[in-house]
UniProtKB/TrEMBL annotation:
Taxonomy, superkingdom: Eukaryota
UniProt entry tagged with the keyword Oxidoreductase: yes
InterPro entries cross-referenced by the UniProt entry: Auxin_biosynth/cation_transpt, FAD/NAD-bd_sf
Oxidoreductase as UniProt keyword: yes
A molecular-function term among this protein's GO annotations: monooxygenase activity
Key words of the record: Oxidoreductase
Cross-referenced SUPFAM superfamilies: FAD/NAD(P)-binding domain (SSF51905)
Taxonomic source organism: Penicillium capsulatum
Name recorded for this polypeptide: FAD/NAD(P)-binding domain-containing protein
Entries under Gene3D superfamilies matching the protein: FAD/NAD(P)-binding domain (3.50.50.60)
Length: 301
């Protein structure tokens, strides 16, 4: 049991499997229908995207205790190709405007996105400003499955009770899931990989110094949306795209990935964190120069 696994009432009576997102290493581990996903951060979006887009699953329920902020990860494709992500925009605005105005601008951007795409559950909450809850988690890839009815969003909601084969949500919805996934974050647990190890004290950006034997996935709360790979040499390189990471791990396991030098990794990491957080165009160039080949762009699945 993960320390960040939520305690759900009646969990001991469940007749369906309950997994943490760290336990899901392949899309085929997910059912093709009737899935409850708890959470609304990057890990929850990963699970819903893999279920609905990759696995074509139906009747997926995304349950979030509070409405999350979030401009989409592909809000305007032409801006993404120029490197203007929502996190980059947030950083730039914070440098030139008072925080109140930044929050107002981000609120309007998120509101426009939700209205334009017709996803009312992704309208920004009024209770918290963007600056206090910077979790950019919406996925443009999920708009089509949402409109097809493949998944539903339950905001300001939680699991009230698990009773055998059913889950009762606090909004009164009753679901009979084939699986419940608690998507409450990624960690440095790589025990499922050859030579991997359990998560421990390095579940943070400090994992750059972690003595890890292989490569693993996690994200730092200070920079949501950026995923890191901890290398055997004890250094990390970066990617804000989960697809990049999957390809990297596959190349590593096949023995076709040439790791960059420690100096190169440190230079690239410092540059991306200090100067252009989450710029996918620049990230892709840096990753390819560092040894990652044939990477897909953010808007390609």
């Amino acid at each position: 049991m993960y320390p960040y696994m939520p305690v759900l009432p009646g969990v001991e009576t469940a007749t369906f499997p309950i997994r943490h997102n760290n336990d899901i290493h392949d899309t085929t581990q997910l059912p093709t229908s009737d899935i409850v996903v708890i959470g609304a951060g990057p890990s929850a979006m990963d699970i819903v995207q893999e279920a609905c887009v990759t696995h074509k699953a139906t009747n997926v329920h995304l349950v979030a205790r509070s409405a999350h902020w979030g401009a989409p990860d592909m809000w305007w494709p032409w801006l993404w190709r120029l490197g203007w992500t929502e996190l980059h925009l947030f950083r730039v605005l914070c440098r030139i405007l008072p925080l109140f105005y930044v929050d107002t601008i981000m609120h309007l951007i998120h509101l426009f996105w939700a209205i334009f795409h017709g996803v009312p559950e992704w309208r920004p909450p009024h209770s918290d400003p963007a600056s206090s809850k910077v979790g950019y988690i919406l996925r443009t890839h999920l708009v089509l499955p949402y409109k097809k009815g493949q998944f539903k969003i339950h905001n300001n909601c939680g699991v009230k009770l698990i009773d055998g084969d059913k889950v009762v949500l606090s909004n009164g919805t009753v679901v009979h899931p084939q699986m419940l996934v608690a998507a409450t974050g990624w960690s440095t647990d790589s025990s499922y990989l050859p030579g991997g190890s359990k998560a421990g004290e390095y579940d943070s950006l400090a994992a750059a110094d972690a003595p890890r034997p292989l490569y693993l996935r996690f994200y730092d709360q200070e920079y949501p949306g950026i995923f890191y790979i901890s290398t055997a040499a004890g250094f990390i390189t970066y990617t804000e795209n989960a697809a990049f990471l999957s390809q990297a791990v596959n190349q590593i396991l096949r023995g076709t990935w040439a790791p960059p030098s420690a100096e190169e990794i440190q230079r690239n990491l410092k540059d991306v964190v200090l100067h252009h957080i989450c710029l996918p165009g620049l990230l892709q160039e840096d990753l390819e120069q560092a040894g990652f080949k044939d990477l897909r762009g953010k808007d390609v699945r």
